[in-house]
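Sequence only, no structure available. Ideas?
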Amino acid sequence: MAIVRDGMGHVVQRLRENCSLGYSDYTLVGTDYWTDAQIQGYADEYVEVLKRIPLSAFPIESDGTLYYYHYEIPMKWLENNTSGTSYFRLYNGVGSAIGTADYTFDAVNGHVDFAADTAGSIYYADIRHYPIDEISAQIWMLKIAHISANSFNIRMDNHTFNRNQRIEQYTKMMDFYRNKVGASSKRIIRGDMS
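Reply:
I predicted one. Tokens follow.
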């Protein structure tokens, strides 16, 4: 059984919330849905691995002097630094890694707060970004497929449970998250030009 990486707890939890995922909602072909490892697996299918992303500094002013503690990565929903440097790496302009004791990291919002004033130094990050809304839409689509294969219309004691009602609701949720995604773009750097 796959183990969920330490830095993925917040991503897995948000996907559980967005997609109404329990720990054992149903069984399909002998597999129980939804374990943390399954959710991480689907998230990893959509991860964007980005290198050398510049952080933006947000100085504060005190008595005419600027102090630099707060920086931001221009994305939200990143894998946390607790997964290790293969998944998140923060470094300065010359490539030297910054130790985790020197900063705190908010992986949900992409905020980095240093313990000491950085004097406006330049920082970069190698990150793994999870497009939460896109992943949520895909999980809702998968749930529709699972329901189609694994449920039936039931009538008993003057009550009717219609599979189409669930499919309609799941489709609305899938469309909701797809509409939140909007347009996207990718940064491309040519290596054949100097």
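The mean pLDDT is 91.
Hope that gets you unstuck.
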